[in-house]
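sanity check this chain:
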Amino acid sequence: MRKVYLTGAGPGDIELLTLKALRVVRQADVIIYDRLVNPDLLKEAKPGCECIYVGKENKHHILPQDEINTLLYDKALEHESVVRLKGGDSVVFGRGGEEALFLVSKGIDFEFIPGITSAIAVPEMANIPITHRGKSVSFRVVTGYESPDKGYAQLDWSSFKHDETIIFLMGLHQLENICKQLIGVGKSKDYPVAVISRGTLEDEQVIVGTLADIYEKAKDLPTPALIVVGEVVRIREVLLGEG
């Protein structure tokens, strides 16, 4: 049966790929993959598998989303097994839901294969547990990029004034504004923040600071980068024997 597998590739480290994702990658006739996918995963593809790069970067898309949707449809008509491979999890700001709806509208069978989301894995592997008794009993994952075509702010910044762990994805270019907004709703300038660049990979960089100084410390880090705001950031120095 022809099928498109909307597959999460995990946060970067190839060993964090799920067994199910590895199985479909090895069986795929076509792999359509994004920028955040570890290229070593493509070495697992069978001989003759067609690998198509459709990566997206800030203000630069190899293919617009509607063309990616069409590509998935076209390849599904040609082949039995098409893998759409995305960094992290395909439905955590990965537009996997949009692609699934498009495929259903065209009568194409699909299956979601969850991936380990960077929102949890990257802080954890950097020794920052996103929840911790006495410090944070909840967490929120937020896009750091608001679509300019909406014409209005999508985030209710006043809702961030309570103590919880906040993970911003795709937010490095908005870091200064994020800090200003959080201070504006009442968070202390000394509130702890960490920015993790290229998390789970060998060249990972972790910068720890506060809402007052993290922008200057971390603004030049390479992307992808993830921002963690919360008291749990302080646990890192204890775990590393620095506190």
